[in-house]
Structure formats: structure tokens, C-alpha cells
């Protein structure tokens, strides 16, 4: 017996729930298009290695993977950025930079299902490829804030950090990339003590102290941070100083514009390809982030392409919806049904339907072969409140009878007067 339930961790949406998802996606699309981003549509199925190469420990362990009939190891996309980079390498390298792209679609991760975490969920995001300036960071973060303002979620917090600071400190300890990624994974999972314990065995006190201060958010000012690193090796301290300055400059510019932004030096994101500024969006009503992103300047090169500094973000559509619990999709348009009384008038009924649809007026055609008295209660149950009734006389006289199912009032209207009359009453 086939089960009627969706697979574990997946969910059906219909009616108002589906409309809410589309509302979030549509508002997102409007915002990013205004900023010059063009849509990219990529396959759900990709080569496993595309995501595994630099996806990080957690992502590799939660991907839906299988071997296809051609013997290729493939995966359902767990996120979009690698697909966008592949698209760029395959089709867009010749275009002027930066290239601004956006996407909306489903992604798949074999996580343990819980509130705010599904195995199939939706992401909407942007990627800017081919620009390394701070202006690119500011544009992307500004668009993120603009979207949340648009949907009425202004009580969010955008947490920012610069992963380049951690990576530079780790490089001073001559760590391998795998070691760096593992420690960043531990930080992302909140295992700060394990990181300190690991570093205490291989690190000099000064570097260990800087990392400890970052992990426990003990640094509040740029000047304090610069003071903390001043005695390090000159080559590394200059890189660190530039990355610290970039982080605080982004914060200061956006804070002046009343963006709800906060520096969180303990913030680390799970994806291993981040190289610079990273950020997450939180909301007080839930424990998980509802959006996130960052700079990934080396990913294109990692896939064999030219140096292409890039930055982007993704929102979790269902996660955003979870904090928009009181969202009401406005639908003030009165619903219309066209009722042909017999087969002889169906052609005329369809003509009326076409007129309404061509003028963007929603209407349905009654398909039930039952009496008018029995149709009306059914239409009321379907929230239809206007009936356009068409019989032999209406067809002959080029008219329609319009009945308000709520007030029971009925009028006979010439077909030529139909549109202005309908627009007046809906």
C-alpha cells in the first residue's frame, strides 16, 4: 500500500501556505531585480564532487548521493553556490564583471528533521562574481536588509565576522587547510573549549589568547583588536590589520544607516569555502539563523577557473516563513464563477470567461451539471461570491445576469458594460 504521507523531513504545501511561500519568493525576486541581478536556473542534480570539494564536514555528511545508471556519483544539490560557480565557469566567463545572479529553488540535506530544519527546503539567494571591493560586501548586505524590511521583519539582527582573521591566525601556526576547516567546523558547532584545548598544544600564548578573545567575544573596539595583534610577525599583522579594519568599516557604515548589524567575532559558518566577511541573520523568536552568506574568493580557482573574488547569501524560505507567523496574504478580490445553464450557451460562456481573463480578472467556469439552486451553495463553500449566469436569453440578447451570492441581488448587464460593472463590484 502506498503511503499518503510525504517522505520524512519533507512537506506538502497548498492553499494559503503555498501562497505564503510564493509571496516571500516574489518579494525577494522584486528586490534583487531592482539591484541588477539576473535569474539563474541550475539543475537539482549535480556531480557529487562539485559540492564535496569544499562544502565542509557537515555538508558532506548530509548530502543525498547515489550512483546513476552511467556510473557517475551524483548528489541532489544541498545548496546553490557551487552550481552558480559551475554555471559561471561553463557559460559566463566572457561577461563583464561583476556578474550579478540570483536563484530560487529547492535544496536537499539528509538532516535529522526538527522545527526549522527539513530535508527538502527552499533557498533564495544572490551571488556577485568578480568583485573584491568593500563596496560589493556593502551592496550584498544592503540588499539582504532591504529584503527583510520589505516583508516587515525589521526586528532581526545581522551578525557579521571576517573568517579571514581566523584563517590568517591559523596559517601562522602552519596548519593544513583540512585542519583549519575542522577547527572552523568545531567553532560553528559551538565547541569552543575543544578548539582552545587543541590550540593550546600547538600554539604560542599570544595567538592562542587572540583566538580565545575572539571566541568569547571579549573585543568590542577596532583599536583594542589592533592593539592585541601589534606584536605579531609584521607580514601577518598587516594582513590581520587590513581584515579587522574591513570588518569594522562595514559595521560602521551600515550602523549609520540604521541597519541592525552586530559584530560577532565567534561567528563561523559551516561551509568551508568562505574566505572573508561572513554574516547570518537571526530573529528573537527562533534559535536558528534564517539567512546567511559571505565572501568566497577562492572557490572559482578551486574548480580550475581564473581568480574570481565573489560574495553572496541565501535566505531559508521556510525559516523566514516560520517567523512570519502572522503573515496574511491580502486577497480582497471577490471571486467570480461563470455558470452556463445548458450546453447550447457554453460557447458564449467561454467568450465571457476569455474577456475577463484577458483583462486580468480571475474567474472560474462552473463544470457541474446540476441545477442552479444546488450549484450556489457549493460555490459559497468555495468562497465564490459573484455568479455570472448565462442562459439562452442572455446569449440571444448579448447580455449576462450577475448575481451577488451574499446579498442575493441580481442584475442584467450588456456584455459591452461587463468590464466596468465587474471592476466596480470586485
UniProtKB/TrEMBL annotation:
A GO MF term: histidine-tRNA ligase activity
Ranges where the Aminoacyl-transfer RNA synthetases class-II family profile domain occurs: 1-340
NCBIfam families noted in UniProt: hisS
Gene Ontology biological process terms in this record: histidyl-tRNA aminoacylation; L-histidine biosynthetic process
Family: Belongs to the class-II aminoacyl-tRNA synthetase family.
Protein name: Histidine--tRNA ligase
Top-level taxon of origin: Archaea
Positions that bind L-histidine: 79-81, 109, 123, 127, 269, 273-274
Transcription regulation is among the record's keywords: no
Reaction equation(s) it catalyzes: tRNA(His) + L-histidine + ATP = L-histidyl-tRNA(His) + AMP + diphosphate + H(+)
InterPro entries reported for this sequence: aa-tRNA-synth_II, aa-tRNA-synth_II/BPL/LPL, Anticodon-bd, Anticodon-bd_dom_sf, His-tRNA-ligase, HisRS-like_core, HisRS/HisZ, HisZ
CDD domains per the UniProt record, alphabetical: HisRS-like_core
EC number assigned by the record: 6.1.1.21
Pfam families: HGTP_anticodon, tRNA-synt_His
Keyword presence, Ligase: yes
Species, as recorded: Acidianus infernus
Gene Ontology cellular component list: cytoplasm
Sorted UniProt keywords: Aminoacyl-tRNA synthetase, ATP-binding, Cytoplasm, Ligase, Nucleotide-binding, Protein biosynthesis
Location(s), subcellular: Cytoplasm
Predominant localisation class: cytoplasm
Amino acid at each position: 500500500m502506498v503511503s499518503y504521507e510525504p517522505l520524512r523531513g519533507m512537506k506538502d504545501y497548498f492553499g494559503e501556505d503555498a501562497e505564503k511561500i510564493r509571496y516571500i519568493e516574489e518579494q525577494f525576486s522584486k528586490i534583487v531585480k531592482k539591484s541588477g541581478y539576473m535569474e539563474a536556473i541550475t539543475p537539482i542534480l549535480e556531480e557529487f564532487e562539485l559540492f564535496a570539494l569544499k562544502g565542509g564536514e557537515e555538508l558532506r555528511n548530509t548530502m543525498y548521493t547515489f550512483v546513476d545508471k552511467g556510473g557517475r556519483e551524483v548528489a541532489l544539490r544541498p545548496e546553490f553556490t557551487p552550481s552558480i560557480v559551475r554555471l559561471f565557469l561553463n557559460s559566463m566567463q566572457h561577461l563583464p564583471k561583476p556578474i550579478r545572479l540570483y536563484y530560487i529553488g529547492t535544496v536537499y540535506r539528509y538532516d535529522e528533521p526538527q522545527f526549522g530544519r527539513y530535508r527538502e527546503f527552499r533557498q533564495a539567494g544572490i551571488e556577485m562574481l568578480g568583485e573584491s571591493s568593500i563596496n560589493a560586501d556593502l551592496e550584498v548586505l544592503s540588499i539582504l536588509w532591504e529584503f527583510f524590511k520589505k516583508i516587515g521583519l525589521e526586528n532581526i539582527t545581522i551578525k557579521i565576522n571576517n573568517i579571514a582573521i581566523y584563517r590568517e591566525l591559523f596559517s601562522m601556526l602552519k596548519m593544513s587547510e583540512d585542519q583549519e576547516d575542522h577547527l572552523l567546523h568545531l567553532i560553528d558547532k559551538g565547541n569552543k573549549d575543544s578548539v582552545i584545548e587543541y590550540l593550546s598544544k600547538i600554539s604560542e600564548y599570544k595567538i592562542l589568547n587572540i583566538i580565545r578573545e575572539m571566541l568569547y567575544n571579549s573585543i568590542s573596539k577596532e583599536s583594542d583588536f589592533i592593539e592585541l595583534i601589534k606584536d605579531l610577525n609584521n607580514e601577518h599583522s598587516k594582513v590581520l590589520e587590513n581584515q579587522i579594519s574591513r570588518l569594522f568599516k562595514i559595521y560602521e557604515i551600515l550602523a549609520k544607516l540604521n541597519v541592525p548589524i552586530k559584530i560577532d567575532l565567534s561567528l563561523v559558518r559551516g561551509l568551508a569555502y568562505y574566505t572573508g566577511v561572513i554574516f547570518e541573520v537571526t530573529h528573537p523568536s527562533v534559535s536558528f539563523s534564517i539567512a546567511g552568506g559571505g565572501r568566497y574568493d577562492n572557490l572559482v580557482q578551486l574548480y580550475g577557473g581564473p581568480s574570481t573574488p565573489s560574495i553572496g547569501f541565501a535566505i531559508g524560505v521556510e525559516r523566514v516563513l516560520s517567523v512570519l507567523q502572522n503573515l496574511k496574504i491580502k486577497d480582497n478580490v471577490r471571486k467570480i464563477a461563470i455558470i452556463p445553464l445548458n450546453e447550447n450557451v457554453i460557447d458564449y460562456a467561454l467568450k465571457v470567461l476569455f474577456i475577463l481573463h484577458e483583462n486580468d480578472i480571475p474567474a472560474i467556469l462552473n463544470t457541474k451539471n446540476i441545477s442552479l439552486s444546488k450549484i450556489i451553495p457549493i460555490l459559497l463553500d468555495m468562497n465564490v461570491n459573484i455568479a455570472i449566469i448565462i442562459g439562452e436569453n442572455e446569449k440571444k440578447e448579448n447580455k449576462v445576469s450577475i448575481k451577488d451570492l451574499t446579498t442575493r441581488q441580481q442584475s442584467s448587464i450588456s456584455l459591452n458594460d461587463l468590464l466596468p460593472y465587474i471592476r466596480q463590484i470586485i
